[in-house]
């Protein structure tokens, strides 16, 4: 098992992508050194180890950088194969397929710009009631797909992965506090108990895990951060300069 000196994680406290890496490391019981990064004043360390995208998270293992959150989760899975739990359910790491009654649900979670995350990101970035209403309407069909996928994949257990947390749980679960703060500002309820009982119960189970609690930021602090983000977005100049 790597020690803190051998394994370092560069991240920002509010990033759901960093939360993914923290949860995966926590599930495997891997010790590491966390180094907070200011994305508005990027450090030489970050620029040196992720010079192309200049983003977090970056996992450094023995000086070797690994970038992009899902690649990091895959790297953790493959590098600590002897440490429970499995993170892949025996499926390819970037795709999970659930096949019941000839219904095939494929969650392409490698590309977070498509399917659920694209319309939800529009909701997160909305600054008017009209924008929020439209974005929320476009997000709900994707939540319906996730609800069906949860019942197909979980087979009556608490998580997409069954009775333990896996890749889909980490990928979606890392955004749960962000779902909450966006709901608070937008006046929406994304994972409504009545409409999406499977996802609502899954979210509660995921957030009660000790490794998840340790990885998540304070929700009040995150809400304040989000409101500042929206204020800057609303006041940003539009059009070409």
Automatic annotation (TrEMBL):
Catalytic activity line of the entry: RX + glutathione = an S-substituted glutathione + a halide anion + H(+)
Residues covered by the GST C-terminal domain: 99-229
Protein name (record): Glutathione S-transferase
Family stated for the protein in its record: Belongs to the GST superfamily. Tau family.
Organism annotation: Eleusine coracana subsp. coracana
Record keywords: Cytoplasm, Transferase
GO terms, molecular function: glutathione transferase activity
GO terms (BP aspect): glutathione metabolic process
Main location: cytoplasm
Entry's localization field: Cytoplasm, Cytosol
